[in-house]
Amino acid sequence: MRNICFYFQIHLPFRLKRYRFFEIGKDHYYYDDFQTEDRIRNAVEQSFLTANRTIAEIIRSSNGKFRCAFTISGVTLEQLEQYAPEVIDSFKELAQTGCIEFLAEPYAHSLSSVFDANEFERQVTMHADKIESLFGKRPTAFFNAELIYSDEIGELVSKMGYKTMMIDEAKHIMGWKSPNYVYNHSYISKLKLLVRNHKLSDDIAFRFSGLSLSAENYISWIASLPAEEKVINIGFGYEALGIIQSANTGIFEFMKALPYHAMEHQMSFVLPSEISKKNESAGPLSVPYPMSWVGNDKDLTPWTGNDLQQEALNKLYAVGERVRLCTDKPLLRDWLILQSTDHFRYMSHKDAFGTHYESAYEAFMNYMSVLADFLERVDAQYPTTIDNEELNELLKTINHQEKEIEKLENELKKLRAKKTKKEL
After folding, report:
1. Are 205 and 236 spatial neighbours (Cβ–Cβ below 8 Å)?
2. Is residue 93 part of a domain?
3. Does 142 share its domain with 42?
4. Residues 246 and 317 both lie in one domain
5. 123-154 pLDDT tens trace
6. In terms of pTM, does the model score above 0.70?
7. Chain-centre distance for alpha carbon 374
8. Is the pLDDT of residue 398 over 60?
9. Residue 90 falls within a domain, yes or no?
10. Where would I find the beta strands (DSSP E) of 171-253?
11. CA-based Rg of the chain, rounded to a whole angstrom?
12. Which domain holds residue 82?
């Protein structure tokens, strides 16, 4: 039987406000709340709520045979909790069907997997904790931000205990190989790799209305694939349902009709973790350099392709170790939000997808002004004149002292309680 694995990605960043050079050192709030709320509400009204209702209806009408996965960044979950809690509720209802799987990813939808392995692990744990607290189940399959993958990143993911990871179909990696099999990491066989079929995915996400695509035709394309190709992974941004492909294109009716035609062809819908367990690997995939799911080259140039982006990223991640040593919650929160991939893509000269800036240079200057203030705050707590090893020792001493003080205070409370009893 042929298996179809649908998964949807949801990520919206916190938008930065216009932050001027003269505000550095004076204004530590970096966000345009109006623009952030407006964007999330637009996505909720045009896409998320209707799409969730559609998925719920498909699950009911198929008697639970339709199954799909979601990857939702932590910063997006925060926005939904704040501005559209009804969407969180609808995801909880979907989770209760048992037909939904939530994938783990870096909390801030960041490039930490490339620039800071310790931060990457921290964010993945944060995200898994968030998913478990909201939806009651800890993720077991992994989707990296922008489907970024390499052998080195796969090794990090495997060490964190994940056995299934989504990656994209890239010609320079796949060569003659079909994406419609399960593969494994080049030297860690227990990490299964599920390759997104980019044509079948983009036919829905970007070409649906132009193709006048019907569910019957779409399923017939899958049915015409070689019989031995048993696994079809179809993944795209959730905004394709209602925003990129508006409701009047018939996209929601298309989704509702898919299971009916799939079952006619003896096809089933499965979750990523199920595919990994049920299917043996067809062999290893070697990915020596990071790849992504963006553009024809499937590399990191949308975020790292020019000097502006590299300057911003290097300055940001240079302070990672110091930030993680602190307990200042506002600083830690800003550190997360400033890592979202979007800020760096807005600086691209070629592919500034989703930008609200007039130029890459404007995006860079605004971000660097914010970053300059952020770095001053980091330096105020942990001056760059102190090296990291010395700083670690200082913090160990401080933490030890705090624990000693807490211990003595508890002993003092007990002695006072005993004295009070004796006096009574």
Report:
1. yes
2. yes
3. yes
4. no
5. 999 999 999 999 999 999 999 999 999 999 99
6. yes
7. 23
8. no
9. yes
10. 182-185, 192-196, 231-237, 241-242, 245-246
11. 24
12. 2-285
d(CA 196, CA 205): 13
Identify whether residues 337 and 401 lie together within a single domain.
no
CATH number at residue 281: 3.20.110.20
CA distance 373 to 294: 31
Partners of 31 in the β-ladder: 16
Contact 8, 356 (CB under 8 A): no
Provide the residue type at 71 as one letter.
T
Cα separation, 196 vs 402, in Å, equals 50
Q: Is residue 46, in this structure, part of any structural domain at all? A: yes
pLDDT of amino acid 257: 96
pLDDT by residue (tens digit) across 48-67?
999 999 999 999 999 999 99
- Statement to judge: residues 142 and 277 lie in one domain: yes
CA nearest to 182, candidates 127, 233, 218, 135: 233
Q: Tens digit of pLDDT for each residue in 317-365?
A: 999 989 998 889 999 999 999 999 999 999 999 899 999 999 999 999 9
The pLDDT tens digits of the residues spanning 257-273 come to 999 999 999 999 999 99
Cα separation, 203 vs 342, in Å, equals 24
Residue matched to tokens 């990490």: 191
Residue 397 confidence (pLDDT): 63
Measured between alpha carbons, how far is 194 from 190 in angstroms, rounded to an integer?
13
Q: What does the block give as tokens for 45?
A: 């009204």
Q: Which amino acid is at 346?
A: Y
Closest CA to 10 of 86, 54, 71: 71
Task: Say if residues 100 and 68 touch (Cβ distance below 8 Å).
Answer: yes
Nearest alpha-carbon partner for 69 in 152, 122, 162, 139: 139
Contacts of 387 (CB under 8 A, 6+ apart): none
The dihedral through the CA atoms of 124, 129, 130, 131 has a sign that is: positive
Q: Are residues 250 and 363 in the same domain?
A: no
Can you tell me which residue has the tokens 């704040």? 82
- Which one of 261, 285, 309 terminates a domain? 285
pLDDT band at residue 407 under the 50/70/90 scheme: confident
Q: Is residue 294 part of a domain?
A: no
Total domains in the chain come to: 3
